[in-house]
Amino acid sequence: MSSPHSVIAIDGTAASGKSTFSRALAGRLHYTYVNTGAMYRGITWHLQSKNIPLTDSAAIEREISAAGVETALHNGELAFRIAGIDPLPHVREAKVNEGVSLVAQVASVRKLLVAQQQRLAEQASLVMEGRDIGTVVFPQTPYKFYIDADAAVRARRRNAQGETDVIQQRDAHDSQRKESPLAKKQTAHGENSGT
Ligand code: C5P
Questions:
Q1: Quick check: CB of 37 below 6 Å from ligand 1?
Q2: Closest ligand 1 atom to the C-alpha of 170?
Q3: For the segment 94-152, what is each residue's pLDDT rounded down to a tens digit?
Q4: 36-49 and 94-103 helices cross at what angle (nearest 10)?
Q5: Which atom of ligand 1 lies nearest, measured to the CA of 173?
Q6: CA dist 40 to 4, 142, 186, Å?
Q7: Closest to 181 in 3D by CA, of 8, 13, 31
Q8: Does ligand 1 lie within 6 Å of residue 174's CB atom?
Q9: 130 pocket-lining for ligand 1 (C-beta < 6 Å)
Q10: What is the pTM of this model?
């Protein structure tokens, strides 16, 4: 990495506690916390609000290039806009939980977001969470964690948050897709990444 900044990569399954851990770690280290799931969710919400079928990759590609997707850091936080609108207030809706894994398997969406995520590290040291951060976005970082928890514990966690989520469906989709599947990979030092 040519950037003077460090990246801590946190990957793992849905509702495993990645966000809680990543936010706390970023606060402790005075790094900027970036939730890449929110970016895939934001695009999903936008496509749903335009009634674009989430199985139509060509239509998705056309829409995101026409709408324009912007990613930046403002006041130490991720600022994300699609067609000039901040989708983040809407990204925890049940319909987004249901659709996001379909959108996340579209190659053009991943290519766009990965490039924008990589550029953020030019501005600040980051704790970045997602599914492919240690494997694809910042494979060279020596700081990689993979977080998982029992499926029942994760389901309880979502219920307690008052959310309807299709956790196991998302995990299956995310780990079986062709593009950048969720996987527990070796660390930059060749050891298994910790859970
Ligand atoms: O982390 P979160 O559960 O909010 O992510 C929502 C969805 O976004 C995941 O289920 C996955 O489909 C997708 N995602 C991804 N790659 C990332 C982050 C999230 O494919 N780096």
A1: yes
A2: 10
A3: 999 999 999 999 999 999 999 999 999 999 999 999 999 999 999 999 999 999 999 99
A4: 100
A5: 12
A6: 27, 25, 25
A7: 13
A8: yes
A9: yes
A10: 0.94
Give the three-class secondary structure for 72: strand
Residue whose entry in the numeric block shows the structure tokens 């704790």: 127
Of 131, 136, 180, the residue with max ligand 1 atoms within 8 A of its CB, to mutate for a pocket test, comes to 131
40 Cβ below 6 A of ligand 1: yes
- Does the CB atom of residue 54 touch ligand 1 within 6 A? no
User: Would you say 117 and 137 are in contact if contact means Cβ atoms under 8 Å apart?
Assistant: yes
Extract the tokens encoding 17.
């506690």
Contact predicate 37/88, CB 8 Å: no
Q: Which domains does the chain have, with CATH numbers?
A: 7-176 (3.40.50.300)
